């Protein structure tokens, strides 16, 4: 399995592409896995920015600003394996189920995406096969390796960022914890984030964490793996100083959570999105 975002790897049939994921090696015995679905804003050259101006790829519509360096620094600080998505979510969103209508966006925050509309079924399947599915295979393999090494469930933390304002309304939260219906990692995480008293923490705000088929549903909710999704406001991690400050804030909190035996046990919780179906379970329960 490739572990780097290589822009020079030749594809089959003469097409150029790069690896859709990067795996950062860590110590799997630690029992912790970091994920960054929207780490990067890259596209293979043949997609030519999907018809959008270059500036669109510096916006949140293309990736989660600040999350790549934050994930790299947390991985190093915690010696934890991490999986990063290497393609822009404008191409296809790895944090959506394959049957989600927002998997390939035609319009994103007011920006029409010419390369996504109209889109042929053949191209839809090509993006699934070249980007979405390999990324999730990398996530599955990394989680399985960590579980096998420690002989216990890993703790999985997914990292994202959100905009300081939406539709002209400022967002008061500095960070947020999103979740579906498994509170095991969520409650101690929120408690520790709030303990310093200097930040406002959203509990399923500004988004609800229950999304059928998304990364946490697929890799954690369905197989019963303890997890949480952390969102950090983008303006707080938009530069090196901000990333360093949030690494310093989050690393000891995640280390403390990872030391909790209760966060290394398999237990499936019912999803607020509805009953599980055959095939939902990505990593198998032991």
From TrEMBL:
InterPro entries: N-FG_amidohydro, UCP029730
Protein name in the entry: N-formylglutamate deformylase
Annotated source species: Sinorhizobium sojae CCBAU 05684
Organism ancestry: Bacteria, Pseudomonadati, Pseudomonadota, Alphaproteobacteria, Hyphomicrobiales
């Amino acid at each position: 399995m490739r572990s780097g975002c290589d822009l020079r790897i030749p594809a089959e049939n003469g097409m150029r592409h790069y690896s859709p994921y990067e795996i950062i090696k860590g110590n799997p015995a630690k029992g912790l896995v970091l994920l960054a679905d929207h780490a990067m804003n890259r596209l293979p050259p043949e997609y030519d920015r999907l018809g959008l101006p270059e500036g669109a790829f510096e916006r949140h519509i293309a990736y989660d600003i600040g999350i790549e360096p934050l994930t790299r620094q947390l991985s190093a600080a915690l010696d934890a394996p991490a999986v990063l998505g290497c393609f822009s979510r404008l191409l296809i969103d790895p944090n959506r189920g394959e049957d989600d209508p927002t998997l390939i966006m035609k319009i994103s925050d007011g920006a029409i995406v010419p390369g996504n509309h109209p889109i042929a079924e053949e191209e839809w399947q090509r993006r699934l096969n070249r980007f979405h599915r390999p990324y999730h295979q990398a996530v599955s393999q990394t989680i399985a390796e960590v579980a096998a090494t420690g002989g216990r469930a890993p703790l999985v933390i997914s990292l994202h960022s959100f905009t300081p304002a939406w539709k002209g309304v400022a967002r008061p939260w500095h960070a947020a914890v999103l979740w579906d219906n498994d509170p095991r990692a969520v409650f101690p995480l929120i408690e520790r984030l709030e303990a310093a008293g200097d930040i406002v923490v959203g509990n399923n705000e500004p988004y609800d964490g229950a999304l059928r088929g998304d990364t946490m549903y697929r890799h954690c909710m369905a197989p019963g793996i303890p997890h949480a999704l952390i969102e950090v406001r983008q303006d707080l991690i938009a530069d090196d100083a901000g990333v360093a400050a949030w690494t310093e804030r989050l690393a000891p909190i995640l280390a403390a959570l990872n030391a909790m035996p209760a966060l290394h046990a398999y237990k499936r919780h019912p999803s607020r999105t509805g009953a599980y179906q055959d095939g939902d379970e990505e990593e198998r329960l032991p």
